[in-house]
C-alpha cells in the first residue's frame, strides 16, 4: 500500500506498507485502514527548485517532490521489462524559468500521456507539473521520475 499522508498544516509524508508487512497488518483484528475526509482544501503544492534537485548535497532522494517545467526535448518511447511486465519509458528534459535543465524519466501511463502531448503540441509549448516525483541519482547525475502510480502528472 502506497500512501501520502498530511497533517493539518500541509506537511506531507510518504508511507509504504510492503507485501511482507501486510500479513502482520491483516492478522491484527482491530486494524482498520480507510479514507478520511480532507481536513484542509489546500492542494499541498511545494515546487522544488531545479538547482536544489541537481545539487548532490541538495534535496533528499527519499522525499517525493513537486516539479514544474517546460519540456524542451524528449527521446523516442522505449519499452522495458520491469518485473516481467512490459512497461513504456520516456526520457525528456525540463527547464524552469531560470533556464535550469532537469532530466526526467516517465514510466507507464505517464510516459504515454507525455508522449501524446508532445506529439500533438505542434508549435505550442508543453508544460508539465509532476507531483510527488522521485529524485534519482545515476553515475553522479540527478534526475526525477514518476514514483509509479504514486505520482500525479498534469500537462
Automatic annotation (TrEMBL):
<dbReference type="GO" id="GO:0003677">
    <property type="term" value="F:DNA binding"/>
</dbReference>
<protein>
    <submittedName>
        <fullName>Nucleic acid-binding OB-fold</fullName>
    </submittedName>
</protein>
<keyword id="KW-0238">DNA-binding</keyword>
<feature type="domain" description="Replication protein A OB">
    <location>
        <begin position="60"/>
        <end position="146"/>
    </location>
</feature>
<dbReference type="InterPro" id="IPR031657">
    <property type="entry name" value="REPA_OB_2"/>
</dbReference>
<dbReference type="Pfam" id="PF16900">
    <property type="entry name" value="REPA_OB_2"/>
</dbReference>
Amino acid at each position: 500500500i502506497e500512501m501520502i499522508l498530511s497533517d493539518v498544516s500541509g506537511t506531507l509524508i510518504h508511507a509504504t506498507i510492503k507485501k511482507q508487512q501486510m500479513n502482520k497488518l491483516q492478522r491484527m483484528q482491530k486494524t482498520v485502514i480507510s479514507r478520511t475526509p480532507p481536513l484542509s482544501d489546500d492542494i499541498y503544492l511545494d515546487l522544488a527548485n531545479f538547482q536544489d534537485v541537481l545539487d548532490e548535497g541538495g534535496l533528499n532522494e527519499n522525499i517525493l517532490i513537486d516539479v514544474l517545467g517546460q519540456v524542451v526535448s524528449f527521446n523516442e518511447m522505449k519499452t522495458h521489462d520491469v518485473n516481467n511486465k512490459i512497461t513504456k519509458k520516456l526520457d525528456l528534459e525540463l527547464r524552469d524559468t531560470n533556464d535550469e535543465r532537469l532530466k526526467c524519466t516517465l514510466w507507464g501511463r505517464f510516459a504515454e500521456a507525455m508522449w501524446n502531448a508532445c506529439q500533438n503540441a505542434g508549435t505550442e509549448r508543453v508544460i508539465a507539473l509532476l507531483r510527488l516525483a522521485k529524485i534519482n541519482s545515476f553515475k553522479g547525475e540527478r534526475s526525477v521520475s514518476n514514483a509509479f502510480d504514486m505520482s500525479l502528472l498534469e500537462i
